[in-house]
Design a protein that fits this description.
about 60 residues, mainly alpha, rod-shaped, transmembrane, membrane, transmembrane helix
């Protein structure tokens, strides 16, 4: 689960770079910036959810 959280965190970083225009893309693809921001938001939310579930699973273990 931690691997997937890292994967989605990397996708969030990629999406933010794509949305901000730091990664160059074809001028005819102006909708790619919107896709980048959507990828960033969704991937960040999934990453936080996976990390929360991982923390909750290990934190609620009886000692």
């Amino acid at each position: 689960m931690l691997a997937f959280a890292c994967l989605f965190a990397a996708a969030a970083v990629f999406g933010s770079l794509l949305g901000s225009g730091a990664i160059d893309y074809s001028p005819g693809w102006h909708h790619i910036a919107s896709y980048g921001w959507a990828l960033c938001v969704n991937a960040a939310a999934i990453s936080v959810l996976l990390l929360f579930n991982l923390y909750h699973r290990h934190g609620s273990r009886p000692h």
